[in-house]
Amino acid sequence: MLSYHMQGFSGYGVQYSPFFDNKLAVAASSNFGLVGNGKLYILEIGREGKIAEVNSFLTQDCLFDVAWNESHENQVLVAQGDGTLRLFDTTLKEFPIAIFKEHEREVFSCNWNLVNRQNFLSSSWDGSIKIWSPLRKQSLMSLTPRPLEITKMVDPLNAILLNKKNHTGISKNKNCVYQAQFSPHDPNLVISCSGNSYASLFDIRLPPSKNQNNFLVHSGLEALTCDFNKYRPYVVATGGVDNAIRIWDIRMLTTNGSATNNRTTQNQTHNPSCINEIINAHGLAIRKVSWSPHHSNILMSASYDMTCRIWRDLSNDGTKETYKTNSTDARKGSILNFTKHSEFVFGIDWSLWGKPGYVASTAWDGNLFVWNGLGY
Amino acid sequence: MQNVCHTSPTEQIIQKSHRIQSGSLIPSKRTRLVRTELKTQYNNKDPHVETCFLHDTSDLEGVNNVKFQTQPSPLTLRAQNNTEDSSSWVPQFSSMKIDDPLEFSSEYKRLYSNYESRQRQNSIRQNLPFRSSMVRKTTLNYPLQNTLQQQRQGNRNDPTDAFNFDAEFHNLENEMQEARYEPIIQQDEKWLDQDQVELQKIATGIVKCCTPPPSSTSSSSTLSSMESKLSESKFLKLMRGISSGDVTLKKKADGNSSSEFFSPNDGELVGNRHVFISDEVREDISN
């Protein structure tokens, strides 16, 4: 295991470079991201196995996510707390090379399109997802998950919320789009998850009136993270405040089950598109899920319980569906539990390079750890 | 002799039960039946207790014994006055120079006054750590307050402690302390603006959410490991500080929140200092 400590900063997001096997970018914030500066770290893993800082950029506000430019090896994008996105050139010092400012509140996630490599997206606490080109200061498109507008009308969701009396935060955070991602298979597909417990699937080619399909994913509690499977284009995983990881088959989403065209019914809580779930995957809320780039049935999760876990999706054996769920296994499909972090873990990423299984994780303890998640 | 006269088995049972109860001096309508036992007990214990109380005033334990064991309850006295053999108590009381059985002697009052003043000093000493450190420590007094309330309730339910001045005095003292603290808290909170109060509420929510209940027993090692990590978490330590008001958002001269935390107690910076970074964009982009 390799480690690097970011003195005075808490890690929020980490990503391996898509161009260099030993480069990592980490988005960090001071004072646990509550107030203060942010810092983008560009780190390199040396031949002797030590991680060293090769460049860093201090920012005016906290940083919450990071994404490498898929078409430029020296450019890194960060999501900032003041509602801006900033593109940095890692060969330069101090200031960004572009600022993208349209969001009205904190930007919580950013993601580069892996297929066309020409644009990126951002999701924000203001309830919107924006698609950008690095060549334009204005966004190309703005998407708003529709359940944000109709949540008040949806009786079953309100009933669920009333039953969760211990959890009072959702009313304030329901508009927050915690994460959004392009599909790694289709440049026009975007998935997002929000504080209103919905995941939204967008087809950006369609007109706004019918470009989205929304489904309740975490029983009325905030959905904090989502990720497309890298091998199965129709499979996504979500994680949330109910401590559960759920795996969905988006082919089974129907317009009848969608909150877009039809008022949500009680049946929606038993959505048939949920093909697998790991109940109580962690002791506290799940902050991030990420499918392996090397295996179709392995994913990683990071949580507020200060651990990272590697899971095997037992509904698929790597080649075909097994029609099993992880509840059939005594260990719920858990492969490895990484417990070295001492604060909430927010950022995880799989290495694309070398032997499959290496991952990087960063947490509010200011540490970046590089470790072998598969152990073989 | 009297026992022999009472041939009714019921009365014998009652008599036995009263013999047991007499250990705690619970007064009864059937005082007549147990007066012998009472008298015996009183005669056995009284000399020692009375000596402790009257002659060894520094012995607080002796004073407590007096309260619990020889302090005549009004009910007891009333019952005794109503009995035919109440005359047997007269020498006892006359030796204590008590004219009115419902009124304490001047000597007793003087001794109790000394005892009371000593207790007051003790209670102040005990409360010093709370008082001297921080006004907001009143939150720490809640468990103490509950305990006292429970004690108080218990005292009221138990007739033998009708004269437990010690506990009553502590209760009153604590109530006075609370009354003294509360206005200061309100005055303090006036200094917090909306942002700071909101942050304090959020922090309190986080602390509540992440603090395991004291009675909880973790079934798995993962849970206990998580709880130990949470108890050592620097983030939660900061949240506890914000929740208690020891840390809050720093304000700029214009009233806006600055991007730093500070301690209102000593004005010191908490966490990282904020560095201003201008919104410049580099034009010399590498290709």
UniProtKB/TrEMBL annotation, chain A:
<dbReference type="InterPro" id="IPR036322">
    <property type="entry name" value="WD40_repeat_dom_sf"/>
</dbReference>
<dbReference type="GO" id="GO:0005053">
    <property type="term" value="F:peroxisome matrix targeting signal-2 binding"/>
</dbReference>
<dbReference type="InterPro" id="IPR001680">
    <property type="entry name" value="WD40_rpt"/>
</dbReference>
<dbReference type="GO" id="GO:0005782">
    <property type="term" value="C:peroxisomal matrix"/>
</dbReference>
<keyword id="KW-0677">Repeat</keyword>
<protein>
    <recommendedName>
        <fullName>Peroxin-7</fullName>
    </recommendedName>
</protein>
<dbReference type="GO" id="GO:0016558">
    <property type="term" value="P:protein import into peroxisome matrix"/>
</dbReference>
<dbReference type="Pfam" id="PF00400">
    <property type="entry name" value="WD40"/>
</dbReference>
<feature type="repeat" description="WD">
    <location>
        <begin position="279"/>
        <end position="311"/>
    </location>
</feature>
<dbReference type="InterPro" id="IPR044536">
    <property type="entry name" value="PEX7"/>
</dbReference>
<keyword id="KW-0853">WD repeat</keyword>
<dbReference type="InterPro" id="IPR020472">
    <property type="entry name" value="WD40_PAC1"/>
</dbReference>
<keyword id="KW-0576">Peroxisome</keyword>
<feature type="repeat" description="WD">
    <location>
        <begin position="236"/>
        <end position="251"/>
    </location>
</feature>
<comment type="similarity">
    <text>Belongs to the WD repeat peroxin-7 family.</text>
</comment>
<keyword id="KW-0963">Cytoplasm</keyword>
<dbReference type="GO" id="GO:0005829">
    <property type="term" value="C:cytosol"/>
</dbReference>
<feature type="repeat" description="WD">
    <location>
        <begin position="100"/>
        <end position="142"/>
    </location>
</feature>
<keyword id="KW-0813">Transport</keyword>
<dbReference type="InterPro" id="IPR015943">
    <property type="entry name" value="WD40/YVTN_repeat-like_dom_sf"/>
</dbReference>
<keyword id="KW-0653">Protein transport</keyword>
<dbReference type="InterPro" id="IPR019775">
    <property type="entry name" value="WD40_repeat_CS"/>
</dbReference>
TrEMBL record, chain B:
<dbReference type="Pfam" id="PF25098">
    <property type="entry name" value="PEX18_PEX21_C"/>
</dbReference>
<keyword id="KW-0576">Peroxisome</keyword>
<protein>
    <recommendedName>
        <fullName>PEX18/PEX21 C-terminal domain-containing protein</fullName>
    </recommendedName>
</protein>
<feature type="domain" description="PEX18/PEX21 C-terminal">
    <location>
        <begin position="192"/>
        <end position="268"/>
    </location>
</feature>
<keyword id="KW-0832">Ubl conjugation</keyword>
<keyword id="KW-0963">Cytoplasm</keyword>
<dbReference type="InterPro" id="IPR056940">
    <property type="entry name" value="PEX18_PEX21_C"/>
</dbReference>
<dbReference type="GO" id="GO:0005777">
    <property type="term" value="C:peroxisome"/>
</dbReference>
